[in-house]
Design brief:
The chain is of the alpha+beta class. The protein contains five helices and seven strands, in the order αααββαββββαβ. It is globular and about 40 Å long.
């Protein structure tokens, strides 16, 4: 699993540095799911952020870029009748479902697939609305983000950037 140090080495020093676990605890209790530790660590370090002008992440402790609010709105959107046929599975928080956690600037939605069983790993899924293609990456969020930062083909617009960068979102 990629470490926060590997992400920081490419992306730069984080500035958000959230340390209160309470918003995560409340969100996990509300959704009935425990987020992967690597996803929490990256979100806590960088907070609401736009990476390489393409990938937007939110945080559960932020008042306006609130991850919990974003997730609930996205699940509601993906459960609408006309959208249910786009995803290869159901959006939600139950085992095997697709948990929407981020968006891309070129019509992508980034999901974590909730492990279908107690010993199964998390995976990252990308739904591209332009092509209606869904790609599942059997890797942790940190491994996927590291691949994205290195310019590997894990999302539309993921091209090698000499210096990956981010902008804090307010």
């Amino acid at each position: 699993m990629a470490t926060l140090e590997e992400i920081t080495a490419l992306l730069g020093e984080p500035r958000f540095l959230w340390s209160d676990p309470e918003p995560w605890n409340l969100l996990e209790q509300e959704l009935g799911v425990t987020f992967p530790a690597d996803f929490r660590a990256i979100s806590d370090a960088y907070g609401p952020v736009l990476i390489n002008d393409r990938l937007r992440l939110d945080h559960p402790g932020h008042p306006s870029r609130n991850l919990g609010k974003s997730i609930k709105e996205e699940i509601e959107y993906w459960l609408e009748e006309e959208e249910t046929e786009i995803l290869p599975g159901k959006a939600g928080t139950r085992p095997g479902e697709l948990l929407p956690i981020a968006t891309g600037a070129t019509a992508e939605y980034i999901f974590l697939r909730v492990p279908p069983g107690p010993s199964a790993p998390w995976a990252v899924g990308i739904q591209e609305l332009d092509s209606f293609e869904f790609e599942l990456y059997e890797m942790t969020f940190s491994d996927w983000l590291l691949a994205y930062l290195k310019g590997e083909d894990v999302m539309v617009g993921a091209s090698a950037t000499a210096h990956p960068f981010y902008e804090a979102l307010t």
